[in-house]
Structure formats: C-alpha cells, structure tokens
Design goal:
This protein is of the alpha/beta class. Helix content is 26%, strand content 25%. It has two domains: 151 residues, Alpha-Beta Complex (Quinone Oxidoreductase, Chain A, domain 1); 150 residues, 3-Layer(aba) Sandwich (Rossmann fold). Strand 8, helix 3 and strand 9 form a beta-alpha-beta unit. The structure holds NADPH dihydro-nicotinamide-adenine-dinucleotide phosphate.
C-alpha cells in the first residue's frame, strides 16, 4: 500500500518536495473496523490552506503524516457487523490506497444508481457548497443578475446552473482562457462569460452587466471580489465561498481596494464553511439527484490516474488545469 504524506510546509506554490510518496503495510482492521481499498479521491483547493501552520476552521496537516480528504472505496475486510465486504463507502481517509476506518466514520453509498465519483462532486460536498451559496448564503431571487467566479470549476459550474434554476434573470461566469469560457456558455448554460486572463474583470463585468449584478458567488477573492463590489447593486449579496487567488500567495492581496463601497451600497458579504451545513445533505440530494439523473444538471470532471499523480493534480487544480471536478482514480 502507498500513501502521500506532507514532507514540508510550502511557502507560496507547493512543489514536488512538499509531498512524500511512502510505501506502507496494508493495515488490519480491529474490532468494529473495516479495511477499505480506495477507488476515487477528491482533490480540493482548501487542501493547500491546510498545508500552512496555524489554526483555521480545520486543523493543519501535520508534517510527516498522511494528507487526508474525501474519498470513495470498497470494503475488502470487515470486523464490523454493520458493513459487509464488498460495500462501497464514502469517508475522509483519502491520499492513501488502503485505509482502516471505524465503521461509524464511513457512509455506505448506493453505487447501483449513482456513479461513485458523483459522491465527491455534484452529489457531494462540492454540490452542497454550490447549493447553499445560491439558496442561503447569498439567496438568488427571481430576476437577479448573478456573477460566479471559477465558473468552469466544480463548485462554480454547479452554482451557475442552480442559480439559473432558481430563476436568476442572467448568470455570468468567469474562468481562465478561451476554452473554459466557451464551455461556460456552451456546456454549463451561462448567459455570458468573462475570460479573466484576457483583460480586466471589472471592465468586462461592467460591460456584460450594465444594469449591475445582484448576487456574486465568490470562489476567487482578490480582483474578482473587487470587480463584483464595483458592479453590485444596492443591497447586493456576496457568498464568500473561497479565495483561491490567495491560497499560494506569500503576501496579503491588496484587492478588494473598494471595501468602503460595500458599506455605501449596503452589501451583505457572508462567508461559508460547508461543514457547518452537512445536515442539509438530504434536502440537497433530493433537489440535485433528479437533475443529475435527467441531465438537466451538467457536470464535468478531470480525472488523473494513480496516487503518485495526486500531488501534481493538486498543483494543477490551483493553476486551473481542471474543468469541473478534479478527481484521482485509483486502480487495484
Ligand atoms: P475548482 O474546480 O473551481 O478548481 C479551482 C479553479 O480555480 C481552477 O480550475 C482555476 O480555474 C481557478 N483559479 C485558480 N487560481 C485562480 C486565480 N488566481 N484567479 C481566478 N481563478 C483561479 O475547485 P472547487 O470547485 O473545489 O473550489 C472552488 C472554490 O470553492 C475554492 O475557492 C474552494 O476553496 C471553495 N470551496 C469552499 C468550500 C467552503 O466550505 N466554503 C467548500 C468547497 C470549495 P481557471 O482556469 O478558471 O482559473
């Protein structure tokens, strides 16, 4: 069995020296435990923030310890009455090929009707994040103009489509490069797209939304947040979902430089930490599963094969190498 450990804390962009691929013994389950062979792992931007020292809403990764994250696997040995060998499970012991887990710390999943990797994407934390952003953190109302950043990514692509389903008048997305921006309008149903690499976000947003925007789903922070504050109408709302433009930064971002405008426009900027809302999963699944099944919620994924390629997948995610959900596929 192999696992990936944090070898050293990165300053700025991580590199291969940040990670160590280590051979380990396949662990044996004790009473009440199961042995899981992982089949899919989620790669998430917040994993970069856990590499820094210092307390956040989630404790930092420890140097020398395996990384962790959401994963799907198959039970290959069981000392727990409740979970048989062969069951598919969802859990949090990713970044390793085999994991021993307490039965209480895994969820048995239905892989007859749902693709296992969807539990890491549209039907997992990714989708729930998008759903809460547009329904609760910055609720979209009928007729709203909505702006979504990192819109070709996992959360952003779902958020844009859900905003539309919840009656937004127009949904504008931003992404890096012509291919992704084309995908926003052609695949994910956005009304208009901004290529933030091609020019100023503020100028492009002002041009595409001359009437202003009402809701901003912020996955990026920095210049995107500044542009949104400029374009938001009075009483507009921002869901602060993520700040990916800052995760590798070695200095605080100067943007947004226009925060005083948020006061004069009476804006609401509200942060989201999705683990506060896991009780909303059943309601979300009820909404999203039929949309996914009938094809009216379109998702994409970028699949990287092999545990050894997980570090470069994470580095790639932070540079925009993915469209939709970034996943690692593990084979026996
Ligand atoms: P994505 O699939 O969106 O992948 C990240 C994307 O971010 C990349 O593909 C890249 O797309 C974009 N990106 C990277 N750097 C920059 C930059 N400097 N400026 C603009 N865009 C950039 O990841 P997720 O959907 O998993 O996550 C999206 C956001 O949501 C992240 O900020 C993440 O931290 C946050 N999140 C927050 C949660 C919460 O509980 N609050 C839960 C889950 C996610 P491009 O090619 O377009 O640049």
């Amino acid at each position: 069995s192999r696992e990936i450990r944090l070898a050293s804390r990165p300053f700025g962009e991580p590199d291969e020296g940040t990670f160590a691929l280590v051979e380990t013994q396949v662990p044996e389950p004790g009473a009440g435990q199961i042995l899981v062979r992982n089949t899919w792992m989620s790669v998430d931007p917040y994993m970069r923030t856990r590499m820094n020292a210092g307390e956040s809403y989630i404790p930092p990764f420890e140097v020398g310890a395996p990384l962790e994250g959401s994963a799907i696997g198959e039970v290959v040995a069981s000392e727990a009455d409740t979970i048989p060998v062969g069951a598919a499970v969802s859990h949090f012991a990713g970044w390793r090929e085999y994991a021993v887990l307490d039965a209480a710390h895994v969820e048995v999943i239905d892989v007859e009707n749902v693709r296992p990797q969807d539990y890491l994407g549209a039907l997992g934390t990714t989708g729930l994040t998008a759903y809460l952003a547009v329904t609760e953190i910055a609720p979209v109302r009928e007729g709203d103009v909505v702006f979504v950043s990192a819109a070709a990514g996992a959360v952003g692509s779902v958020a844009g489509q859900l905003a539309r389903k919840f009656n937004a008048a127009r949904v504008i997305g931003s992404a890096g490069g012509p291919e992704k921006t084309r995908k926003l309008t052609e695949t994910f149903g956005f009304d208009a797209a901004i290529d933030y690499r091609a020019g100023s976000v503020a100028e492009q947003l002002a041009e595409l939304a001359p009437e202003g925007i009402d809701v901003y789903i912020d996955n990026v922070g920095g210049d995107h947040l500044e542009a949104a504050i400029e374009s938001l109408n009075d009483h507009g709302k921002v869901a602060m979902v993520g700040m990916i433009s800052t995760y590798n930064a070695t200095e605080p971002s100067p943007a947004p430089r226009n925060l005083p405008t948020a006061q004069t426009k009476r804006l609401t900027l509200r942060g989201l930490v999705i683990s506060d809302h896991f009780d909303r999963f059943p309601e979300y699944i009820e909404t999203a599963a039929p949309l996914l099944a009938d094809g009216s919620l379109v998702t994409e994924e970028t699949i990287v094969d092999g545990l050894e390629n997980a570090p470069s997948a994470l580095l790639g995610l932070l540079r925009g190498a993915n469209t939709g959900k970034m996943l690692i596929r593990l084979t026996a």
